[in-house]
Amino acid sequence: MNDPHVVAVIYRLKHDAFVKYDKAEPLEHDTPEFTVRVSEGEAHFEMKKHFGNVEAAREMVAPFIRAWEVTAALDEGPGHFELIFKNGDIEDRKPTPGIVNVVRVETILMAESVSIVLGKGHYPEPPSGIVVNADVEAMLSRYTKFRQDRETLAGMAYFCLTVLVESAGGRAPAAGKFNVAGKVLSTLGRLTGEKGGADARKVKGLRHEFTPAERDWLDLALRKLIRRAAEVAYDPAQSRPQITMADLQKLN
After folding, report:
1. pLDDT tens readout for residues 185-220
2. Mean pLDDT, range 164-189, rounded to an integer
3. Which 8-state DSSP code applies to residue 173?
């Protein structure tokens, strides 16, 4: 090729066996760098700027894709939505006369067995106003392991609390940095320190299992806090509504 140009990079949707998107309405989202269209299990990122190779185009869309996956994991649950690179379409902007060059760069995909039980009428909404930094990745990793029964609730929740507190230099500064009511953070600390049953972090929690309401409270609180951390990573100066106990399920 004389002047290769990436027209689009294409990703396939990956999800757990219990999720199905065959009835989902097509989705289109526009950004200054690309337009993404999702339908029939594929996401097409059509480039608005010039990229001479697929690797550069993929690098540009990667933060958006990861933010999308994180948003979907927090809204729908881990395993509902991932994007796996499938191929890239390249054209020659200055072809040799009489020769047409259109190249498709592909990756090998492994077949997956799927047993569908949950139909989805829509694709997850594209991300807005978040950045996935190292802290967000670490917290989401632990949360995902918890949802997959590979991590205890108490251990996961305390880890996330510690990440938030240490990133701000203390619990009170964390409440200010992430605009979270102090009561939310103190309740999170109390539950992870005093409860958990056989999976308790501390000995005093061995005889005190989490109630169903406490489990639900911790799950929702952690999803809100991880999202808030991603929002603050995007714009630390932006004003956001405070996360309060009223935003979470009642404990009694």
Report:
1. 999 999 999 998 888 788 887 888 999 999 999 999
2. 98
3. H
- Collect all residues with Cβ–Cβ distance below 8 Å to 134 and sequence separation of at least 6: none
C-alpha angle 42/146/175, rounded to 5°?
Answer: 100
pLDDT in tens, 36-61: 999 999 999 999 999 999 999 999 99
Place of tokens 């999720």: 19
Distance CA(60)–CA(44), nearest Å, equals: 14
Give the count of beta carbons closer than 10 Å to the beta carbon of residue 249: 15
The per-residue pLDDT for 99 is 53
Which residues 6+ apart lie within 8 Å of 123 measured at CB? 13, 21, 24, 25, 27, 38, 81
The owner of tokens 């990229």 is 51
* Structural domain boundaries in the chain: 4-119, 134-247
User: Identity (one letter) of the amino acid at 91?
Assistant: E
Question: H-type helices in the chain, by residue range?
Answer: 54-75, 134-147, 153-168, 171-177, 182-194, 212-234
- The neighbouring-strand residues paired with 30 are 35
Residue type, 242: Q
Amino acid letter at 86?
K
Q: How far apart, in whole angstroms, are the C-alpha atoms of residue 63 and residue 31?
A: 13
Task: Read off the pTM.
Answer: 0.86
